[in-house]
Amino acid sequence: MVSQKKIASLFICFLLLLLLPLSFSKPTRNLDGISARAPTVQQIRSRHHGTREVIVDNGIIRVSFSNPQGLITGIKYKGIDNVLHPHLRDRGYWDITWQGTNIRQGGLDRIEGTNFRIITQTQEQVEISFSRTWEDGHIPLNVDKRYIIRRNTSGIYMYGIFERLPEWPELDMGLIRIAFKLNPERFHYMAVADNRQREMPTEDDRDIKRGHAKALGYKEAVQLTHPHNSMFKNQVDDKYQYTCEIKDNKVHGWISTKSRVGFWIISPSGEYRSGGPIKQELTSHVGPTAITTFISGHYVGADMEAHYRPGEAWKKVLGPVFIYLNSDSTSNNKPQDLLWEDAKQQSEKEVKAWPYDFVASSDYLSRRERGSVTGRLLVNDRFLTPGKSAYVGLAPPGEAGSWQTNTKGYQFWTKTNETGYFTIENVRPGTYNLYGWVPGFIGDFRYQNLVNVAAGSVISLGRVVYKPPRNGPTLWEIGVPDRTAREYFIPEPYKDTMNPLYLNHTDKFRQYGLWQRYTELYPTHDLVYTVGVSNYSQDWFYAQVTRKTGDLTYVPTIWQIVFHLPYVNSRGSYTLQVALASAAWANLQVRINNQNSWPFFSTGTIGKDNAIARHGIHGMYRLYTIDVPGRLLRTGTNTIYLRQPKAQGPFEGLMYDYIRLEEPSRA
Ligand SMILES: *[C@@H]1O[C@H](CO)[C@@H](O)[C@H](O)[C@H]1NC(C)=O
Ligand SMILES: *[C@@H]1O[C@H](CO)[C@@H](O)[C@H](O)[C@H]1NC(C)=O
Ligand SMILES: *[C@@H]1O[C@H](CO)[C@@H](O)[C@H](O)[C@H]1NC(C)=O
Ligand SMILES: *[C@@H]1O[C@H](CO)[C@@H](O)[C@H](O)[C@H]1NC(C)=O
């Protein structure tokens, strides 16, 4: 006999079950939390092909890995058998591009593991490893790829320990990244930032051979002439339109509006990346692809420090990054908003939890194995002011600004507050230089002494003073010193090759073909900027590009800055400060008052950052402090000629950050 009490309690349970979905119907993965259990690891051998797999399952997600290669072959989530791409080899993988000294050695390597190990398995988490030690023919590195799946967590932490021994052959390492390709049937909506998200075309839409798209002037950009969805017709697709500076690259990914599921790459720290906080990297793009990059030359080019000499040892922990999945169980008709907001919240949680306390490798250092550095940055540009909202960071010892090209070490960056104070936390023990720059001032700061950080140390540097280059009072200036060409004239895109995302957008510069507008605006005569009359936001084109004169012919351009001097100190030394935001196969020649003279200053060929072709508004920063003898100037009207003589094609050129003429010091 069933007692009445039992029936009543069963009834209550039943009611509760009915209610549960309601009470958890707001954010998503809490629903999954109910079934949270200890993660399990299973090794299986497929009956069909004899291939082996490792499967980790925590009741929320179930992740399969090829064994011992360690490629992610499946992610089961929310009733979706696999959120990844149907092509087995294009799902979730690391890759690396390299070049040995022997020209036949190198290429793209998926760093497939040869050895599988379970590192930890507890009630709380599973950490597994797929490693490979160097064998001839492969890139000379030992690699240990690690994956962590935690209880009650809707995602996978991934990191890699990369090591090279000093006796190994020299090599160049171009790129290290993790890539995911998602199921194209499901994922159509991509989000990179609050104001950078949209419905995306498909990989098939980009197919030139099948006549779906037309090639454009740069290989990654295509015009979608026959897309599956006519809303994309004639739009340009280019993955470089979705790049992001490292400081802003915390979360990006894809949403399946049909399945109401999001897939995100969360990067809680910039310490393991290369090139500092404003280096730009790819994020997500048509595929559907989501990428996180640890080392690359993007927007810097061959200047990036990629070469490893004989005798040079290297070891670096890349990651962890967090692959996060979320779902929306509401019935709102736009799941995008909720999923994106939730992904951002999750990324904030990951940032707060950094450095993680659950990572097994002793090469990844916990909070108490790290130190911190504090101080106050002041700027001395004729008088002393707080270095507010400045970037300060610790990076491997080198010249001022060398962090821009550094790939080998860790970097730890922060921003100063309104009064110049800064705290750099969670720094790995080591010897660093303290670097920085201050928006509004030119040049690169480097603190005079090396900074030695030890575990648990709190180093207070007190006041540190940056004295930006300056030899005398300002006569005139063009632009603002912010390391970009953002403030200059950025033209409207062509109607038939635009990306509607960037219309009426703060990032107007992310459009294809803007460089071509120069030839239209200045068909016969180059840009002339008259100090005191011209306005840089209208009259200074964002890039000094070549002028197109025929189908395949281009000519160099010469820009003029015209200015008036009521008086010249002909025995004094004037200073021209030229800060460049980008350079690509360019040479800047400076002449004064005589267009035909030998240039009195020339940079030589500089830069391969490709920021013009890749719609960046900056690449690598360079400052030239140029001495201008007073005898070259005259009372009255003067002209500075800025000539860029290299003109093989459309993409050689420069972006200026800021230009200033200083009169001789009165001191
Ligand atoms: C699971 O995680 C969610 C969100 O982080 C949390 O609210 C919940 O309490 C967790 N549940 C368990 C059983 O730990
Ligand atoms: C800046 O940081 C310092 C040191 O932490 C603090 O005393 C000061 O109040 C902060 N100033 C502002 C404007 O936040
Ligand atoms: C451009 O954006 C601004 C600010 O978001 C908005 O107020 C304005 O209506 C937009 N204009 C057009 C033409 O879309
Ligand atoms: C320069 O042009 C911009 C944009 O049109 C305008 O907002 C600004 O006021 C102008 N500056 C001056 C000094 O006229």
The largest sheet has its strands arranged as 7-8-9-10-24-19-18-12-13
Could you give a short account of the major beta sheet?
9 strands, antiparallel
CATH class of the largest domain: Mainly Beta
Q: What amount of the residues lies in strands? A: 35-45%
Rg measurement, Å: 28 Å
Count of DSSP strands: 45
Number of helices: 5
What is the general shape? Answer: globular
CATH domain topology of the largest domain: Beta-galactosidase, Chain A, domain 5
The first-to-last residue Cα distance is 105 Å
Average pLDDT for all residues: 94
Tally of separate domains: 3
Q: Would you identify the regions where 5 or more consecutive residues have pLDDT less than 50?
A: 10-33
| Proper CATH architecture of the largest domain | Distorted Sandwich
Ligands in the structure?
Answer: 2-acetamido-2-deoxy-beta-D-glucopyranose
Output the structural class.
Answer: mainly beta
Share in helix: under 10%
GO biological process, one term: carbohydrate metabolic process
Keywords: Lyase, Secreted, Signal
Enzyme class: lyase
Main location: secreted
Structure, described:
- With 667 residues, the protein is mostly beta strands.
- The chain folds into 3 domains: 40-199 and 242-353, Beta-galactosidase, Chain A, domain 5, CATH 2.70.98; 367-466, Sandwich (Immunoglobulin-like), CATH 2.60.40; 474-662, Galactose-binding domain-like (Jelly Rolls, Sandwich).
- Helices cover 8% and strands 40% of the residues.
- The strands form 10 sheets. It has a 9-stranded antiparallel sheet with strand order 7-8-9-10-24-19-18-12-13.
- A hairpin with a 4-residue loop joins strand 3 (61-67) and strand 4.
- The longest helix is centred in the first third of the chain and has 20 residues, at 4-23.
- The model is unreliable at 10-33 (pLDDT under 50).
- Residues 417-419, 421 line the site of one 2-acetamido-2-deoxy-beta-D-glucopyranose (NAG).
- InterPro entries: Carb-bd-like_fold, Gal_mutarotase_sf_dom, Galactose-bd-like_sf, GH-type_carb-bd, Polysacch_Lyase_4, RG-lyase_II, RG-lyase_III, Rhamnogal_lyase.
- Keywords: Lyase, Secreted, Signal.
- It is found in: Secreted.
- It comes from Arabidopsis thaliana x Arabidopsis arenosa.
- One of its GO terms (molecular function) is rhamnogalacturonan endolyase activity.
